[in-house]
Design goal:
six-stranded mixed β-sheet, 12 helices, 434 Repressor (Amino-terminal Domain), 49% helix, alpha/beta, 13% strand, Endonuclease, Chain A
């Protein structure tokens, strides 16, 4: 199934299994001498059980550990690259190409009519969404999915983050997801993201009326070679389209949204006002 998440170890050959095997090999074949799980846990400031779990391909992999492993074993980014592959694999197959493009993008423009985009979600907000969408999921499954989503935000903190333009419908800030505390934290996070020099957050007010992109969410991703692709998503489908005519039409529609939406400063004020009502 496309949206299956494992509670036990993953299939042989999966990115998570490769990560675990690479970590075990690095420990046991270390030039300076074999490193025990306990010793590695101490160097990485984590627990022995976490090291054991990672080596046995049991998710999740804490997002800060791959860089530490590369430092400890002087592996020149191998664990970070394996971790990136693992993150992509954590998403349903229909979303994986989007994740790969997103990780390489130099610019991302996104319209969301119903929810805070995944790149700006807080963990409690993401958990509330996953719980609502999968009422029978275990806590472990919810945690794994939420951590995979939040890990996407690492690209916003790297040395050269992509230019990010986000337009959300006013409904996104009015709709209570997870309760007042969760929404207050999420709105505060939106405000914080909006202060970044590379990020613009705008709210499209209800008074705007109809527009071309009312049917669903859309992203435009620009890769380092200048290629632009359009990503559209609905409940059970996701489509990536690089047809030049489609890209031009969707880019034009997005330009109309940014021109119609409240400016960033006014958008931030609307978000603050909504926070005060919670």
């Amino acid at each position: 199934m496309a949206d299956q998440h494992h509670d036990v170890t993953e299939d042989m050959g999966s990115p998570r299994t490769k990560f675990g095997e690479a970590l075990k090999d690095a420990r046991e074949l270390r030039q300076e001498g074999k490193l025990s799980q306990t010793a590695l846990a101490k160097l990485a400031r984590t627990s022995k059980s976490t090291i054991s779990r990672i080596e046995n391909a049991v998710p999740p992999i804490p997002s800060h550990l791959p860089v530490i492993f590369d430092q400890v074993f002087r592996t020149d980014g191998i664990f970070k690259r394996l971790y990136d592959e693992t993150r992509v694999n954590d998403f349903p197959s229909r979303y994986r190409l989007r994740m790969k493009l997103e990780a390489r993008a130099i610019a991302i423009a996104e319209w969301s009519p119903n929810l805070v985009p995944g790149l700006l979600q807080t963990t409690p907000y993401a958990r509330a969404l996953f719980r609502a969408g999968s009422p029978r999921a275990t806590e472990h499954e919810i945690t794994t999915r939420a951590e995979a989503r939040i890990a996407r935000q690492e690209l916003l903190h790297k040395g050269s983050p992509p230019d990010l333009s986000i337009v959300i419908c006013e409904a996104v800030i009015r709709r209570s997801v997870g309760g007042s505390d969760v929404m207050r934290g999420q709105l505060a996070a939106l405000l914080a993201h909006g202060t970044r020099y590379t990020t613009i957050v705008q709210v499209l007010p209800f008074s705007t009326g109809s527009h071309l992109l009312m049917d669903g969410s859309m992203s435009i991703l620009t890769t380092p070679d200048g290629t632009r692709v359009v990503y559209t998503e609905s409940l059970n489908s996701a489509v990536i389209d690089d047809d030049p005519a489609t890209v031009r039409a969707m880019s034009r529609a997005y330009d109309v949204l940014t021109a119609t939406a409240l400016p960033p400063t006014a958008s931030a004020q609307v978000i603050r006002e909504q926070m005060e009502t919670l």
